[in-house]
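Quick one: structure for this chain?
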Amino acid sequence: MTNLSPPSRRALLASLLAAPALNRALAQNAPQELRVGGLFPLSGANALLGDEAARGLELAIAERNAAGGRPIRLLRADVTEPAQALAEARRLLQAERVSLLFGSVSAPIGLAASQAAESLDSTYVELAAAADALLERGGRHVIRTAPAALDYGRLGAEALTRFLPNHLGQPADVLRAAILHESGASAESIAIHLESRLREAGLVVAERLPHAIRTPEMPAMVQRLRAAGVNVLIHAAAEGDAVALFRAMQDAAWRPAAVIGAGPAWGLADLARAIGPALEACFALDMPPIETAERWATGARPFAELYQRRWGSAPRSGLSLAAFAGAQLILAQPNLERGPLRTALAALDQPEGQWANGWGFRLDDRGQNSRARPVLLQWQAGRPVSVFPADAAAASPV
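Got it. Here's what it folds into:
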């Protein structure tokens, strides 16, 4: 500065003194960051599902931020049991000042998060878990964008009356179904609705057997189902018990005419790697996979490309696509505070086919999206492919 003339020195000093004030003005005019929380099991038995749902949420936020406007920041918490979920939900809402919470793939985690949201007058959005218990409080603080257990029951009845008889070349009245399910809230809710809907449709339900997670009793249950003459087996469980089921069937040298999984674990690429060729031609009641009819799920392939660019691999299941689509809708609302958000969502009426995975949106009085429906997929050449209903089918069954 000693080489500058007095006027130049005065101008430089003035600019230096003005810089902090300018920076403060720019900061005040910049859009304020909006924070949202994500509660998922990112470790433990449900880590694959939790991480896949969290990836869908993360991509929805990235897309929203790329469009401009108020920036959104995701604060994720790894939660594996209810007490931890309750504590983390409270921390995010109180200490981190998030506007709302997303989760969870696990009903106990979702229940705990919704309890925290209710006590702190905030909103919890469930992107995956199907358990009936999640909406028993009446929907004042909870919104579920994904299918409910009842939707899985309805699809199961439709598949066993309208699809499976033609596929197997057998009339519906010779089908003897069994429902095997974990004792967890979502799996049990799905199983209860499946049994009810199958019986209403006039189908024979030979057994509905609950089992503990990681049960050692799978071989005995397989023998029981075999003795009961079961030819359609529906299993609602996580990937670990699905693998145990196939091992027990192999050891018993028995396999029913149709094996149908129920729930998001049955659409995981990791399940196919764990089970191997035995999973080929098996079915699952699940969220729409990437391989769904393009006319129905117009955004599935663009999402898969976005996922590939972000993580260097294909989506592990349709769960990330469902979480992405559900979060997109929520984050598109102009105000994410509980009252204005609920009012805006209650006014929405989107027909099926509006979302990237083929869903639409209409909120019922419990907080359930009534236009999110699962599909029947089949494992073909190592990939989950929609085969029913016809408008979602990307291929014929094999």
